[in-house]
Design brief:
alpha+beta; five-stranded antiparallel sheet; 9 strands
Length: 179
Amino acid sequence: PMLTLVAALAVSAAIVKTTGRPAGIKWPNDIVMNGKKVCGILTEMSMEQGYIQHIVIGVGINVRKQEFPEEIRDRAAAIDEQCGFRISRSQLIADIMEAFEEDYEIFLRTHDLKGLRASYAELLVNQDREVCVLDPKGEYRGIARGINDQGELLVERPDGTVEEVYAGEVSVRGIYGYV
């Protein structure tokens, strides 16, 4: 899951560099512009006998304006419609790869997100907002307070306790719209 967050940081930074427009991260794996999702990231891993065999990071970016299905039309968008002009896909890919290499080098120093937390926090659109955590043990609401070194979302409950939300266990939704 940490590599999903590393990739999200790189994609968000690359979109900003390529377009000159803000792009944030909706924890853990969505990139948003103007409150609409323009990119989703999924990470798959294969392990055998306790060793990682491979990791694949899939990045799906909506670059060109398109018609979205009715059920997601209000929360999905393409980058070109959010920034108002056509961007170069090849430049965006180059910028993503450059940013990912830099962020991955930082990640490898500690094998956690310690060196990237501040950069991630600047882009986290959930930060200090009310979220609904859809946990198999029971849904609850709280305020997103950032991430820890493992990439878990820190959610403060109304009683002041802080839950560490692991991306593979739950889904987090904004209360007042997509973000």
